[in-house]
């Protein structure tokens, strides 16, 4: 059994991790932690005001601490379900002690120090680990993930945005003179569990935000190797991301070519479902670890639709998928 902890376990992503890891046959979950001054320290993760769907399933206590020395010598794996700056600060401690770290935040996703000053508001201090980090887009980077000590699990929008586009770029089907236009709608859980004016029930509306400035644009463009226009929207629903991508294909490209490209990369990938006709909606994936992809081509205009649960394929499920790949377990262990 490998010993693991989840830091930030009371959050939306952390609680999903707790569910998957607790039932994972090769993982012993030795601690669920929250910040040192957390109001939730000492509570069970399954308490009613936390994640009561875990009642009788994961009834473990949340430990409020910033001192991980009690666990460090007995630890194989750390999941950081913490905000970007927190992951940035604490990941090196675990890494220097030989743990494998799966970071769900953006702290190690793009190997460019200026990216962090421009988009995250802090100066990155750990270039050494940025150089070593592997981007955990699981279907595409499995060989690198197998060797990695630090896996930067992709953002929720970047996962659903890149998965439909990558096969088409790889096969040279897109007309690059037109940047793909990505319009994405996220449920409110994408903003995390901490209350703020923007995520309270009466204030949430369908609203675009981060126009030309959202940090996921450079994350997507960097890992696609293709510029994109990315516009996120907040929707008044709890969970899920719906992505609509409009792009232009090269002269002569047919629907069969698009389907063939998607199947070439995904037919043996258990967490991606490609639709041969019609296209998915959020109900296809909520509560499930899949990313579903559909498309329609008219003349040279292609519309791709992709959907995922932001907390699952967009966060916790992809992190566990990466761990399964890293340790040579079946890729879907504990997920399906
Ligand atoms: N929500 C989503 O859809 C997605 C989230 N992510 C990323 O995953 C990470 C977690 O997101 P999410 O679950 O939504 O966030 P939440 O705000 O819901 O949870 C954050 C967790 O971190 C804990 N925490 C805060 N400060 C510290 C600290 N200094 N040390 C240890 N724990 C701390 C919080 O508990 P407390 O404050 O009580 O200590 C809480 O358990 C973020 O980096 C986010 O960007 C990635 C993809 C999708
Ligand atoms: C709805 C909402 O607010 N979503 C968040 C993105 C989700 C997230 O947690 O960001 P990472 O994927 O980079 O970790 C946002 O736009 O900032």
Keyword list:
binds NADPH dihydro-nicotinamide-adenine-dinucleotide phosphate, seven-stranded mixed sheet, 10 helices, Rossmann fold, alpha/beta
Question: Any overview of this molecule?
Answer:
With 336 residues, this protein is of the alpha/beta class. The chain has ten helices and 14 strands. Strands 3-2-1-4-5-7-6 form a seven-stranded parallel sheet, sandwiched between helices. A seven-stranded mixed sheet has the order 9-10-8-11-14-13-12. It starts with a strand and ends in a 10-residue tail after the last helix. This is N-acetyl-gamma-glutamyl-phosphate reductase.
Give the topology, please:
Elements: E1 2-7, H1 12-22, E2 27-34, E3 62-64, H2 69-72, E4 77-80, H3 84-96, E5 100-103, H4 113-119, H5 127-132, E6 134-135, H6 142-147, E7 150-152, H7 156-170, E8 181-186, E9 207-208, H8 216-224, E10 229-234, E11 241-248, H9 255-266, E12 272-274, E13 291-298, E14 301-308, H10 312-326
Parallel strand pairs: 1-2, 1-4, 2-3, 4-5, 5-7, 6-7, 8-10, 12-13
Antiparallel strand pairs: 8-11, 9-10, 11-14, 13-14
Bound molecules: NADPH dihydro-nicotinamide-adenine-dinucleotide phosphate and N-acetyl-L-glutamyl 5-phosphate (X2W).
NADPH dihydro-nicotinamide-adenine-dinucleotide phosphate (NDP) binds at residues 7-14, 34-35, 38, 40, 81-84, 86, 104-105, 155-156, 189-190, 192-194, 310-311, 314-315.
Pathway: Amino-acid biosynthesis; L-arginine biosynthesis; N(2)-acetyl-L-ornithine from L-glutamate: step 3/4
Function: Catalyzes the NADPH-dependent reduction of N-acetyl-5-glutamyl phosphate to yield N-acetyl-L-glutamate 5-semialdehyde.
Subcellular location: Cytoplasm
């Amino acid at each position: 059994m490998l010993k693991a902890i989840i830091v930030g376990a009371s959050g939306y992503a952390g609680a999903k991790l707790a569910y998957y890891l607790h039932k994972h046959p090769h993982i012993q979950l030795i601690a669920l932690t929250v910040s040192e001054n957390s109001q939730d320290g000492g509570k069970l993760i399954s308490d009613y005001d936390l994640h009561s769907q875990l009642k009788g399933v994961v009834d473990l206590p949340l430990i409020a601490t910033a001192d991980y020395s009690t666990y460090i010598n007995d630890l194989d794996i750390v999941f950081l379900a913490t905000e970007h700056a927190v992951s940035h600060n604490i990941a090196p401690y675990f890494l220097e002690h030989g743990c494998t770290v799966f970071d769900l935040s953006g702290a190690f996703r793009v190997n460019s120090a200026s990216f962090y000053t421009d988009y995250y508001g802090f100066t990155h201090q750990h270039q050494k680990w940025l150089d070593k980090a592997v981007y955990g887009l699981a279907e595409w980077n499995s060989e690198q993930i197998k060797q990695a000590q630090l896996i930067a699990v992709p953002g929720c929008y970047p996962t659903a945005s890149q998965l439909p586009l990558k096969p088409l770029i790889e096969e040279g089907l897109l007309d690059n003179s037109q940047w793909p236009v990505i319009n994405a709608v996220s449920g409110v859980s994408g903003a995390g569990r901490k209350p703020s004016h923007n995520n309270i029930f009466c204030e949430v509306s369908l609203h675009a935000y981060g126009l030309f400035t959202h940090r996921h644009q450079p994350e997507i463009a960097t890992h696609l190797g293709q510029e994109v226009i990315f516009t996120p929207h907040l929707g008044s629903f709890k969970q899920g991301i719906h992505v609509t991508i409009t792009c232009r294909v090269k002269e002569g490209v047919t629907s069969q070519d698009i389907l063939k490209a998607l199947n070439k990369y995904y037919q043996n990938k258990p967490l991606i479902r490609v639709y041969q006709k019609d296209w998915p909606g959020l109900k296809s994936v909520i509560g499930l670890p899949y990313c579903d992809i559909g498309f329609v081509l008219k003349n040279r205009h292609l519309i791709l639709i992709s959907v995922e649960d932001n907390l699952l394929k967009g966060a916790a499920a992809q992190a566990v998928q990466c761990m399964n790949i890293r340790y040579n377990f079946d890729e879907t262990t504990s997920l399906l």
